[in-house]
Amino acid sequence: MASLLSVKDLHVSYGAIKAVRGISFDINEGEIVTLIGANGAGKSTTLNTVAGLIKPDSGTIELEGSSIAGLPAHKVMQRGLALCPEGRRVFTQMSVAENLEMGGYTRTDAENRETLEKVYAHFPRLKERRSQVAGTLSGGEQQMLAMGRALMSKPRLLMLDEPSMGLAPILVQEIFDIVKQLGEAGTTILLVEQNANMALKIADRAYVLEIGQVKKTGTGAELLVDDDVRKAYLGG
Ligand code: ATP
To answer: Would the pTM of this model clear 0.80, i.e. be above it?
Structure first.
């Protein structure tokens, strides 16, 4: 099967700091793939580079065999990749419904009406709170909104950067349940997470990053019982 997204030998730096040092991975249609690793391993840099927010030094990034490396973020989005960024970045002064509309700005009104109903079906809490100003939502609700906003562009690939960050354990569980449901409904997902335990439980496949390189790869189930992964990332 040809990959939906294929990244090969990606190098990214911030000035003299080499954050990503030859990372390769791929994602097939319908998969949930996770990049796990410690703080500073290069997970967010990889995701932001795929999303067009940072330009790579070298390497290839291909969507169904066609290069997207170095394209600006809005072009990458038009090709069908949506990023749900670290820290959510919802428009705090706007309502829930307005935030969702922003996510669908490249689509027609008719398409957005249909997609909005699907988003509300995955996130009933957002429907209940559609008129509420986003800045007054809880952290978990803001995460749902950021995910819903990304889904409004009907992406071929949804990229999630640390959706569990800063959330209470019960909300972390709820967010991961939703990510799993989105995957089951057919959305292809690239998930960056420090919460390796939760990420591996829902991922079809995973890549373990260390200091800007892929240290290990396997299915989520394999890595959950891998001795090295358990010691380094799962608390023994
Ligand atoms: P985190 O979970 O903390 O986001 P991460 O695995 O996503 O970690 P990155 O944020 O990609 O890691 O960081 C990789 C390396 O690049 C780190 O050494 C980090 O300090 C460095 N780095 C990240 N952003 C910048 C920046 N804007 N300027 C300079 N260095 C940066």
So the answer is: yes
